[in-house]
Amino acid sequence: MILKPQRDLFDLPPEVSYFNCAYLSPQLRAVTQAGHKAMATKASPWTVTVEDFFDTSERVRQRFASLVGTGADNIALLPSVSYGIGTAAANLPVKRGDRIVLLEEQFPSNVYPWRRLAADVGAQIVAAPRGHGGWTESVLDALVPGVAVAALPACHWTDGSSVGLEAISQRCRQIGAALVLDLTQSLGAAPFDVAQVDPDFMVAASYKWLLGPYGSALMYVAPRHHDGRPLEEGWIVREQSENFAGLVDYKDGYQPGARRYDVGQRSNFALMPMVAAALEQLLDWGVNNIAQTLAATTSQIEARVMELGFEVAGPRLGHMMGLRAPGGLPQDLSKTLQEQGVYVSVRGDAIRVSPHLYTTPSDVDRLGSALQSAMKR
Ligand SMILES: Cc1ncc(COP(=O)(O)O)c(C=O)c1O
Which of 65, 78, 43, 72 is nearest to 265 (CA)? Predict the structure, then answer.
């Protein structure tokens, strides 16, 4: 179902045409309100109960789990993608001579932990090139026996070009490689089902397509890794931590499932209600509906920019796109567009255009006109 524009749920002034959700999403009014209320919580600490350390965290876990078709026990609450990939790298067996497959020019949070691990154990990083047939074929070619981990997104962060995770997951299973996903640039705007892809670890930051605050990320951990080693040894992830009076009766066991991987102070009173409110709205719209609506918006943009001579990177997921100009891009393009109220990112040689449900037909017109005049300069 195509959803009608939801601009009134956000705080966007009419003079701003914001095509930069892949950078920082605008905030839903409901999320800002949840944040104001949450910020006041600690001003009256006598109202904070033991349950408050657990209930909102569990609500967030449950909502994120519903978004990806799994149970709350498989979800951990983190501060960042780097933290999640660090956790995966610390828990997967990689030995000397093994390979770790990434994409060329992948986002660094899903690169540096693997480079560190590879240097520590004597493994090798293989960056699959952007092939003519798209990323999927090129990753499948790289997935040969001897690969220990494929650490990938569902689309390239610079231009939304897609990575076929179902086929890749199947190949990973055939060769015994683990699959680690950073879905920051797609989750919430493109459907993803844990049961179909079966990743070992999957993490996404809250502040882009999940429409949440900065400083939060959520991670799915497959049950086969629930006995792993967390990066920290926090007290609240230990068995019976609900009993504050008994905390020095130290426990060897953890809270069930993926909770052992939660970051310290994961109950974060100021942020977690915002994460919960954003996930509630996404579930209410439905990710399939969001995806269909954004695909329609980006198709309209595609038709307009192709008339202007841009090439659109493909095959791509529906929610975002990268525009390349055969003669290259003018200097200061983002600044020139901003002067006309149009916000995009330039990443490498591509203009990254990432709308959301606040995007209206007049935003699309403004983008087309602004690009047309900027390219003439
Ligand atoms: C693909 C991708 N992953 C992760 C991040 C953020 O990583 P972190 O949470 O480690 O700051 C970004 C931010 O732009 C991103 O585009």
Answer: 78
